[in-house]
């Protein structure tokens, strides 16, 4: 009926109603995208339950009555028959979960003794909340004095210390219980293993000088005790450890030898290269000095030849020497030509 729907919607949490509307919008958007891509109508169905404290809501997808082509809707309904069971389960959870033994159950119950005692005595679990409520409000703002703040901090500190001590004691008791049960279990396993017949071990591989140490070739008899087998296995493990250490030492020695050989070879190569380089440099310097000396000698010879040439006086014969005076001018062939003036 419409009245019942209105009552159910009124009981819903506003946040849950907004979430339901968002889920419906997302599903319709996805449905439209798939319809546009594939060209076929998409149907969505399903529901899930949401528990908020003692209330439990059933959120389900409701298809349209007109067909799959119309938008979907999401509806949230309050499960009235499950709220009482949830409250009952919440009250039973405080009694402690059933453990494997009665002693463990007692240990688990001790951790909530203080809170349970406060609930039975009618005291609030958080006394500082009442302190906040008792503080008068002035001008719409609450004022906390320094004494109230110190009292609240002392109460919180006492609660934390008490909870911490109870948790530590609880963990210590559980550890002692676990250790005791572990020892008892080991004793039972040893007794059971000693009473039951054991099959013989596998045939062992004969040990060689450079082979991995294993069991001997002799087979274990039925009368061999578990302590003897454990001792034998421990001896084999120690031999294997020594064998591994020896292999590691041999590998380290061979690596050191290879590294030393490489270093020696590399040092000799670099030394020879350095000697060849120095010899070549010295030879080039010697040849350069010889060339410089030769060039200096040539330059000195050229200079001496030039000085000697400048100091020499050349005497030419008379046949090669020119006239002492200039020649007389010749009369022109034509009278119209003017005679040049004598110098």
Automatic annotation (TrEMBL):
It comes from the Eukaryota. Residues 185-206, 316-343 are annotated as: Disordered. This is Uncharacterized protein. It comes from Byssothecium circinans. The lineage of its organism: Eukaryota, Fungi, Dikarya, Ascomycota, Pezizomycotina.
């Amino acid at each position: 009926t419409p009245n019942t729907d209105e009552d159910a919607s009124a009981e819903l949490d506003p946040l849950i109603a907004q979430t339901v509307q968002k889920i419906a919008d997302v599903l319709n958007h996805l449905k439209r995208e798939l319809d546009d891509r594939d060209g076929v109508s998409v149907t969505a169905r399903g529901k899930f339950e949401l528990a908020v404290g003692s209330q439990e809501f059933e959120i389900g997808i409701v298809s349209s009555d007109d067909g799959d082509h119309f938008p979907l809707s999401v509806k949230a309904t309050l499960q009235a028959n499950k709220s009482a069971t949830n409250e009952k389960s919440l009250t039973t959870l405080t009694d402690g979960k059933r453990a494997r033994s009665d002693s463990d159950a007692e240990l688990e119950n001790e951790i909530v003794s203080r809170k349970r005692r406060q609930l039975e005595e009618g005291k609030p679990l958080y006394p500082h909340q009442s302190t906040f409520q008792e503080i008068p409000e002035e001008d719409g703002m609450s004022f906390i004095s320094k004494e109230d703040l110190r009292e609240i901090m002392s109460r919180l500190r006492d609660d934390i210390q008490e909870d911490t001590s109870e948790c530590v004691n609880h963990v210590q008791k559980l550890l002692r219980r676990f250790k005791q049960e572990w020892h008892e279990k080991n004793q039972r396993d040893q007794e059971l293993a000693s009473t039951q017949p054991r099959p013989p071990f596998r045939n062992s591989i004969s040990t060689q000088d450079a082979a991995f140490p294993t069991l001997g070739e002799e087979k274990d008899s039925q009368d061999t005790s578990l302590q003897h087998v454990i001792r034998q296995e421990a001896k084999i493990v120690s031999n294997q450890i020594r064998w591994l250490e020896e292999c590691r030492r041999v590998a380290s020695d061979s690596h050191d030898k290879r590294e030393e050989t490489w270093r020696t070879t590399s040092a000799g190569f670099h030394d020879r290269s350095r000697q060849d380089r120095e010899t070549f440099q010295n030879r080039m310097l010697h040849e350069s000095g010889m060339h410089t000396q030769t060039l200096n000698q040539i330059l000195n010879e050229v200079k001496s030849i030039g000085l000697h040439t400048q100091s020499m006086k050349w005497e030419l014969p008379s046949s090669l020497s020119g006239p002492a005076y200039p020649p007389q001018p010749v009369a022109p062939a034509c009278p119209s030509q003017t005679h040049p003036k004598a110098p």
